[in-house]
Amino acid sequence: MTRTKALRRGLVPWLLPLALLAVWEVAAKAGWLSARVLPAPSDIAVAFWTTLKDGSLPHHVGISAERAVLGLVIGGGLGFALGLINGALPLAEDILDSSLQMLRNVPHLAIIPMVILWFGIGEEAKVFLVAVGVLFPMYLNTFHGIRSVDRGLVEMGRVYGLGPVALYLRVILPGALPAILVGLRYALGIMWLTLIVAETISASSGIGYMTMNAREFLQTDMVLLGIIVYALLGKLADIASRWLERRALEWNPSFHTGLEAA
Amino acid sequence: MMVPLRAAPPPQVQPEVQDQATVTGKGLELAFDSVTKAFGDVGVLKGLDLVIPAGQFVAVVGRSGGGKTTLMRLIAGLDGPTSGTIRINGTARRGLQPDVRLLFQDARLLPWQRVLSNVGIARGPDWKERAQALLAEVGLADRAGDWPYVLSGGQKQRVALARALVTEPGILLLDEPFGALDALTRADMHRLLTRIWRQHGFTAILITHDVAEAVALADRVLVLRDGRVAEDITVDIPRSARVGGAPRLAELERRILNSV
């Protein structure tokens, strides 16, 4: 009973996309859709296979992923650290927070010309942009998370003899974790967005470069492939962060689905 | 009249050898020497002179704003007195004190730690064994691996009680811990607390709005009014006779209610 239900819940969301895909394929093969406008799904699959075989797709995906992860680690780590410090020390907040809030209001993509002047179109430019993009969501959510930890629990921890370190590790940080993970999910979204823009404007490798290059040669199938790869990578990051949330927030009833509770 | 009750405690749930040694006479004496507490110009406690002997069960009743919570925070060491001294077993103390534990109105369990880790929050050597033993004492031995959110209100408060007792404190403060529970659960908790107080011998200080609860549980009831002890009443009825409708009990309750 539960199994068939679970199976149905797993399958049903796929029906509509699959149907659309079928219509699209038929329309493209019948010539109703120009291959220049929208190549058939099977053509994209072929493009995927060829680029996979000649190694160019893994190469570009690898480079993009490297930029994304590096930017996330640097910017996210910095935002996390700033959030921790400002959340714990009022003096640090007084010194840093208003400046950070000011910088936060600059759309980070607006500094692309500046970044190109500083770093050219090398790797640093992309990593820097991603890092700037993910820094603020991580900072804001970590800071807010630490500030909104239940004061009653902190007081309890003090009465029950927890020292500053134990209090931080066992009460404050776990209490802030839900907010921090929300920040991480925001950061992942911004990470891909930034990377796409940066690679499309100035790059000599990566998925964005691949699609822009394909555009020049009117290879619509490759452009679409690039878009799909971006979508898949974004989805992958989302699944990873959801998995992390469910693992780390097992104690929180709102992260249990009906299926697990049964 | 109290003697036969103390001499024949109910059978121990955890008859462990190591427990016996630590259980005897751990209650601490608590003394207030002209203690005052003011917040700005507002005096909340206006000269408190009081001795609570080791092992006594004292209930503090009074209206909201009468200084009950302030008194509790002073004893717990969360705040310092404006003037005067609080002495524990004769030694003046300030700041947080490891031999004083506080049972909060809301259980304040860490939601991200399982029941056993919550009880053993102070860690230390053998904390798992000791936490498990205390959980058995409050009747929740089989819930050690659960997350707090699956527990009922009464169970949470029992876990909090186990957590308070795991370090064998000399003084246990109870800040209206049963206020949010339903009547039946509350009666269960009263029985449990009385049994555990007898076994462990700590000094218990219960803050409550509920005069019936105060006379049901305590040896002595302090009525706090306008920052002073307005009334200091000894509950001279054996606990076994403290059932609803006992005339002496009703008389005490009336007397306390009149002075609140």
From TrEMBL, chain A:
Keywords: Cell membrane, Membrane, Transmembrane, Transmembrane helix, Transport. It holds the Pfam family BPD_transp_1. The keyword Plastid does not apply. The chain crosses the membrane at residues 68-91, 103-121, 127-146, 167-184, 190-210, 222-244. It is found in: Cell membrane. One of its GO terms (cellular component) is plasma membrane. Gene3D superfamilies: MetI-like. It comes from the Bacteria. It is a multi-pass membrane protein. The keyword Plastid does not apply. Probably part of an ABC transporter complex. Probably responsible for the translocation of the substrate across the membrane. Belongs to the binding-protein-dependent transport system permease family. This is Sulfonate transport system permease protein. It comes from Nitrospirillum amazonense.
